[in-house]
Amino acid sequence: MTEPVSADAIREDIRASLRRLRRLGDEGRIVMAEDSWNVDWHDSRVAIEIAAAALERADTAMLWMHTLPHPDGGYPPIPD
């Protein structure tokens, strides 16, 4: 994947992820694994709230970020 190429585009991806997470949670489509590996997150509502808060914090942190052009000019794609 080579997109997005700017802080603003990454912020929009975070915001879109937050919207999707909330929609799936509201629809009851997120459940937690019930195996022995999941020792921390048994309640999907709590996990969704924590994840949403983290995405909101990332969104807020990125509010004033700007992307400088590449030294060669423009905004070339950034490979993973």
What can you see in these coordinates?
α1 (7-26) packs antiparallel against α2 (44-61). Helices cover 48% and strands 0% of the residues. The chain is mainly alpha-helical and 80 residues long. The chain has one domain (7-66).
Provide a brief overview of the structure:
The protein is an all-alpha fold. It has one domain. The chain contains two helices and no strands.
Tag the structure with descriptive keywords.
single chain, about 80 residues, mainly alpha, about 50% helix, elongated
Q: Which consecutive residue ranges, at least 5 long each, have pLDDT under 50?
A: none
What's the number of extended β-strand segments? 0
**Category from helices, strands and their pairing:** mainly alpha
Instruction: State the major sheet.
Output: none
Q: Termini, distance in Å?
A: 6 Å
- How would you spell out the order of helices and strands? HH
In terms of DSSP E residues, the strand content is under 5%
Helix proportion: 40-55%
Number of domains: 1
DSSP helical segment count: 2
Compute the gyration radius: what is it?
Answer: 17 Å
Which word captures the global form? elongated
> Averaging pLDDT over every residue, what do you get?
89
